[in-house]
Amino acid sequence: MKYSVIIPSYNKALPLMLTLTAFETQTYPHDQFEVVVVNDGSTDDTMDRLSRYRPPYRLIPVSLDETAGRSAARNRGVEAASGDILIFCDPDYLVTPDFVKTHDLYHRQHRNAVVSGVPILFIKAYPHLYPDFSAEEKVAAAEVLQASGLWSNDYWHAPNLIEIVTREDLLDRTGQLEKVVAPWEPVQENYREFPTTDVAPWLMAVTRNLSLSKRLFEEAGGFNEDFLKHGLEDWELGYRLHLRGCPFISIAEVVGYHQEHPSFHRSEDSQGENLRIMYQNHGYSDPEISLFAILPPSEGMEAYKNTLRILKSWRSSKNASDRAAGRQLRRTLAHGARLFHLQPEAPDYEALKNGLKPALMAATQIYTQPEAPQKQEQIKAILTQACQSLWPDSAKPSPTRRRRKRSVRKGALRKRGARSQTRRAAGKAASRTRGKASRRSLRLFRAGTLRKRKRLRH
């Protein structure tokens, strides 16, 4: 078996079955991939539907007695998988017929890479209308369905779920799916910045559509099962893969659509528990992580990545003041992350975040202006002033840096002392050599004088 598709599912029976139907339409050979569905303690009829489902590909259902969370569910799915390459997919991600084939193509071209569906995996579709959609969600659905002639005003107050796209629509290729797909807006900053790899490429690790070899997954340690709520569990794995030097590649083709459903169905990490787990495991020193406590990617992907680019340019700068400004900002971000981890309710954290975030936004706005005069100096002034006013200790060398300086000075003194000892030893050796030469010369001189005297006597 070459590919194993891993799908964790919690109370998503309806979208899951539509997604599984989509795998029946794959153009990749059905005997070369399997689908592992992990029922994460669902209370709906997921297992009943799976027990009656007979697809043309190998289906491996795994059921957990209790809800363990996405990380644990995916790990259990990997344990049951036999494929060399893992493809992680969500139960509400409706794949196109070329989904597996496209992953195969990218892995042939990019060995040992992590292949990601970002940013195009964010395309939305409305195959079902839920009665518990919020007013805002109903408006968004209506805009899409009205454009294709599938909307009825009766849907505004429909008491039951309405199935717009059926299993038969997918199998018979009726074109109904394409009519419920929302317009794609790739110009938005989040979509534009997601696949960039110069800084934080690991943000491409979004398990709605992600593949990598099983060997790399196991070497990285799999998903951290401390993450129980949704959010960061896939990025944290991506971060570990990034530290191991794995390249990240973005799929350019459309290979699936997110089936929109009521947002309250998601178990979001609203209190930041997952970020604290991140800090507990990886510390605060890396600005790619510490920045999450002040300006997370979810609140501005472009500003987040541009801040990292500023820090990256300062770190490699030949200008000492640039390097000093970079150290000061990194220390301030690390301090903010530490406060968030240990004292999230403390006034000090709120004051730091509320003061530093606007400065970062202002600096990154200048960064995006190619013709801004004295751009680098403006950015440096804004961020240095913010760090100094919000946390004066940021300007002080860190204890580690002070220890490093002391050790460097001690090393220099030791080297200087060693050189002095070498010179003294060389001088003594030269003196001994000169002394020996002088004594020998004196002996020769005396011997010659005696010979002359003897000749004179005779």
From TrEMBL:
<feature type="domain" description="Glycosyltransferase 2-like">
    <location>
        <begin position="4"/>
        <end position="120"/>
    </location>
</feature>
<protein>
    <submittedName>
        <fullName>Glycosyltransferase family 2 protein</fullName>
    </submittedName>
</protein>
<feature type="compositionally biased region" description="Basic residues">
    <location>
        <begin position="399"/>
        <end position="458"/>
    </location>
</feature>
<feature type="region of interest" description="Disordered">
    <location>
        <begin position="391"/>
        <end position="458"/>
    </location>
</feature>
<dbReference type="InterPro" id="IPR001173">
    <property type="entry name" value="Glyco_trans_2-like"/>
</dbReference>
<dbReference type="Pfam" id="PF00535">
    <property type="entry name" value="Glycos_transf_2"/>
</dbReference>
<dbReference type="InterPro" id="IPR050834">
    <property type="entry name" value="Glycosyltransf_2"/>
</dbReference>
<dbReference type="InterPro" id="IPR029044">
    <property type="entry name" value="Nucleotide-diphossugar_trans"/>
</dbReference>
